[in-house]
Amino acid sequence: MLKNVIFTERDYFSGMKVRSTTRPTKARCTLPKYMGFLISEPKSATCTRLAEVTGFSHDSVNRFLHREHYQPKDMYNESIVELNPVGGTLSVDDSVLDKPYSYSVDLVGYFWSGKHHRAVKGINLVTLYYTDTLGRHMPVNFRICDKSENKTKNDYFREMLIEVLAWGLKPAFVTGDSWYSCTANL
Fold first, then answer.
1. What is the per-residue pLDDT across 81-110, written as a single tens digit (0 to 9) for each?
2. Residue 36 and residue 45: Cα distance in Å, rounded?
3. Cα 97 to Cα 128: distance, rounded to the nearest angstrom
4. For 19, which DSSP code?
5. Is the dihedral angle over the CA atoms 164, 165, 169, 172 positive or is it negative?
C-alpha cells in the first residue's frame, strides 16, 4: 500500500526536467504522490482508488488534476529525455476507457472498441508511442477525442504527428493499425 511510503520528485524524476507545478499547493495530492500511484497501481488508476490506498479525499486528486492543465507537450518533454529522438518507430493507437454508467459527461461518447468488438460508451484516447533504436519506448503525445470538435481519429493523428515532428522527433517509420490507413495519412 502507498499509505506508508513517502514519494519525492527525486525518486521518480532523477535527472529529468519535469514541468513544475503552477503554484505551491497545500493539497494532499501532489505530483510525486500521483505519479507513484500511477506507477504502482496494476488495475484501477482512478481518483477513488487513489483515495482508498492513501487515505485522502478523491476530491484532492481532482483539484490537483484540474489545477495543473497538463498538455501533450509536457508528456513529450518528460519522455524525450530518456529516448533517442532520431531513427525510431512512431506508432499510433487508440483505446476506449469504458464508462458505461456515465451520464452527461462531456467527453463520453460511443466509440468502437477492439476489446468488445462493438461500439461502447466511453472516453476515446489516441496515443503516439515512440520506440527508439535501442528499444526504449514511451508515449510522446496524446489526444482525448472530443466529439464537439467534429474531428476524427485520423484528424487527431495528423495533428499529433505534425506536433511531435515540430518538437524535434525524427522517426524512421510511422506505424498504425488499419484504422489509420486513409489516403490523407498515407
1. 889 999 999 999 998 888 878 777 788 888
2. 11
3. 17
4. P
5. positive
